[in-house]
Known about the structure:
The protein is an alpha/beta fold. Helix content is 33%, strand content 18%. The mean pLDDT is 93. One of its GO terms (molecular function) is ATP binding.
Amino acid sequence: MGDDGAARRPPVLAVSPEALEEAVRVLRGGGLVAFPTETVYGLGADAANPDAVARIFAAKGRPADHPLIVHVASAEAARGWAASFPEPARALAEAFWPGPLTLVLPRSDRVPDAVTGGRATVGLRVPDQPVALALLERFGGGVAAPSANRFGRVSPTTAEHVAADLGERVDLVVDGGPCAVGVESTIVEVDGDRLTVLRTGAVTAEDVAAVTGLPVAATPTGPARAPGMLAAHYAPRARVVLAEAPEAAETVARWVEKGHRVAVLAEVLPEGLPQGAVPLPPVASARDYARVLYQRLRDVDAAGADVVVAVPPEPAGIGLAVRDRLLRASRAH
Ligand code: TXA
Ligand code: MG
């Protein structure tokens, strides 16, 4: 499909038995189906079909060496895609699947090179979303799926985001409503007893340590261990500026004085905002912040703001993932 693939809208079906049947038919035929998960919408293809997987990279405009997560309906199904499933992985799967956790494990022979960019490991996840689980159960196989956005754009948390961003590059969008978690899954690499968090999400490194009783290496900074975790991946068009609450109003004023249209994102809107600042609807908690983060970043662009000053949530629980995404977004410009 050409570069004008986004010009026309794809079919978007509200979830129903017929919609799921159609989605399975598209997957079996080697096509692309966008579907809801609890984190973000995924752009799915039959993980066992290299041609179908290649279409994901074309539709996203994503470099072929960025590996994809294989989504399956159960931990039992996941075992078929891993060459080994060490005890810590078993414990994590039992504690958090279905849920927002991806396990990176040695890949089995069943995993095509196209899915992993040729690497020796594969990312596996059982999503906690009824539509996703119903689709995976009916399909029966693994569904390789990155977030359903064009490469370098904000992840989609509604069917509308997917339709607007990918257009006819996707064959079918199944609409299961907005995503409950809102930020991508936590990725944990399990190398025997060595655990490394490659991306933070709703499941924290503390949770992983508590369940396994093992030390957990922190998310490596510097060159990304999980390819594809580049700054620009989480950024809107507008520049993202981070400010802690006490200095937020002053930061906003500085950017307004420089002639920018400045949006403000926070749990509690700072007092004394200058005239001309564009406050976004405040968020109720760290959990709520995660749920609406990508919607709000889209709202910034829609409001015509070229700067957003974001007051990040407390660095605990899912607030850590929100801070991580905001920090990456702030480095993109
Ligand atoms: O919540 C999520 O994980 C969503 C939903 C759709 O499940 N998916 C998602 O996929 O965020 P994507 O492709 O946008 O991000 C997956 C990340 C990438 O940074 C990729 O490099 C990393 O997972 N990844 C996948 N397989 C890997 C592997 N074998 N080793 C290291 N990193 C891997
Ligand atoms: Mg992504």
